[in-house]
Specification:
Blueprint: H1 9-19, H2 21-26, E1 33-38, H3 43-57, E2 60-65, H4 76-81, E3 88-92, H5 93-101, E4 111-116, E5 118-123, H6 134-143, E6 147-150, H7 153-166, H8 169-175, E7 176-179, H9 184-189, E8 195-199, H10 200-203, E9 209-214, E10 223-229, H11 236-246, H12 252-256, E11 261-262
Parallel strand pairs: 1-2, 1-3, 6-7, 6-8
Antiparallel strand pairs: 3-10, 4-10, 4-11, 5-8, 5-9
């Protein structure tokens, strides 16, 4: 899969450096360290954007990763509960609003970065189920011997809303498993699950998988992944800089190529 499609790597870097020219005017005399924690769906875009930002700004980004919701030890809520320190958090809009209500984030600091949809994947070379309609999706779920879904926002939607809506919640208790602290794609790639459900941006980078498609529009959940400033951070201005970079039109195509729909300014 071509990362940049019509945009060359050199062209992208040039346009990004131009977009970052305004950053230099606000950069401190010494390089700052910006501590960021991000959830899975934005991870691939994040990993590609951060080195470009560091080169353009002179700052260093210290990265951590975890699920948007849930009580797994490495989930974002668990890490905040343990008192880990960050300057910026990137996660699903629901998870961000929960942290905002708890007083962990600066009120009014939310910035939406990208939209994400739930996809379905199978191990490469195995039959692709029909998910083209709601009824077909339901039948494919019932036919599957094993189903894996995320412990984060998309998985919560499946287990608490979609399965009950389809009338298969009881059946899914027998064949579906919530995956903790691991990507669903890894479980399907090993052959430990027949079907995998997670954000498209978290499935497309597994070469061992075939992406079947996204959920039908009638039952799809589109999630915003958003950034928020952490209360008590000493690097809020630099964190704002980083968010402006993430939403720059110059990097929108790169974000799109990671399976997300960018929310560019």
């Amino acid at each position: 899969m071509k990362l940049l499609n019509s945009i060359t790597r050199r062209g992208l870097l040039a346009s990004v450096l131009l977009a970052c020219a305004s950053l230099a005017a606000h950069t401190a005399a010494h390089a700052a360290e910006i501590r960021v924690i991000t959830s899975g769906a934005f991870t691939e875009a994040y990993k590609k954007l951060v080195p470009i930002y560091e080169a353009a700004s002179g700052h260093k980004v210290i990265s951590s990763f975890g699920a948007s919701i849930g009580n797994a030890p490495d989930s974002i809520p668990s890490r905040f509960a343990r008192g880990e320190k960050f300057d910026l958090v990137i996660l699903s809009d629901g998870g961000l609003e929960a942290l905002m209500k708890e007083g962990k984030l600066v009120p009014g600091s939310r910035v939406d970065l990208a939209r994400s949809q739930i996809g379905v994947a199978v191990r490469k070379g195995t039959p692709k189920p029909d998910i083209s309609t709601v009824e077909a999706l339901k039948q494919s779920l019932l036919n599957a011997k094993s189903v894996a879904y995320s412990a984060s926002a998309s998985g919560t939607y499946l287990s608490t809303e979609l399965f009950p809506k389809l009338g298969i919640a009881e059946q899914m208790k027998l064949t579906a498993k919530r995956i903790m602290s691991e990507r669903v794609g890894a479980v399907v790639a090993r052959g430990d699950a027949e079907l995998g459900f997670q954000q498209v941006s978290e499935l497309i980078y597994f070469k061992e998988l075939d992406l079947v498609g996204t959920l039908p529009d009638a039952v799809q959940q589109t999630i915003f992944f958003s950034a928020g400033l952490v209360q008590g951070s000493t690097e809020q201005e630099n964190a704002k800089q980083l968010v402006r970079f993430f939403t720059s039109p110059s990097v929108a195509e790169l974000v799109r190529n990671t399976g997300l729909d960018p929310v560019s300014k």
